[in-house]
Amino acid sequence: MANYYSICTDYGGMIPVESTGGLVYSEGSKIYTISYNPGRRVYGERLLRLSDLEYREWNPRKSKLAAYIKTGGCAFPIKKESRVLYLGASSGTTASHISDIANEGKIYCIEFAPRMFRDLVNNCAGRSNMIPILGDAIQPEEYQFAVGQLDMAYADIAQKRQADIIADNMDLFHVNTGMVAIKARSEDVTSQPSEIYKASEKRLGERGFDILDSRDLEPYENSHRMIVFKRD
User: Fold this and answer.
1) DSSP sequence for 152-202
2) CA 130/CA 97 separation, integer angstroms
3) The pTM of the whole model exceeds 0.85
4) Looking at residue 13, what is its pLDDT?
5) According to the model, what pLDDT value does residue 5 have?
6) Into how many domains does the chain fold?
7) Considering the domain boundaries, does residue 81 fall inside one?
8) CATH number at residue 146
9) Residues of the chain predicted below pLDDT 50
10) What domain range includes position 72?
């Protein structure tokens, strides 16, 4: 398992986080991405300029992907050139940081709620690699026409059958690598989160995927687990 902190070269006062391939940076206990759209905040985050680059603080209490990194996540499939299908993009907080990381790729941001979608469209301004799409993750055929070739899928959706929803999308778009932030209370409020996580991992296995990493997101998110998975 990769260490959270890299012992690599200090870069402009920032230390690359080894588990992310050096695409996320740390300064003390905080983590950052290099802004794709300098000078503009997405959710009130701190901006820090060093060595002619602008870094955006990534708050793990507002982003489950940041929480995954902070809790020691060791499987981080997002690369500079990644083309990502993001299910449940909401207003674009996490998607904007993926935009920073995959600055040579594309992020297809699927959001169902009209109010959140309006905020998402606004936050995509100045980020040409973020494509906002109004759609329902359980009906991927409806937005298939708007999505290009993909490398991976990421899901953060508050509804039942989370494992199947991302797997259905991955089957349709012929994607082999995925990350899903399982919300236990969205699946079943009466069951123990640990049982829901096991069931989700089992279901992904039944859909033909191998689990690369699976970890709780506490103390940043209660009753949430990030699962990273892949099929050959």
Assistant:
1) EEEE---SS-HHHHHHHHHHHHT--EEEEEEEHHHH-TTS-HHHHHHHHHH
2) 10
3) yes
4) 76
5) 28
6) 2
7) yes
8) 3.40.50.150
9) 1-11
10) 67-230
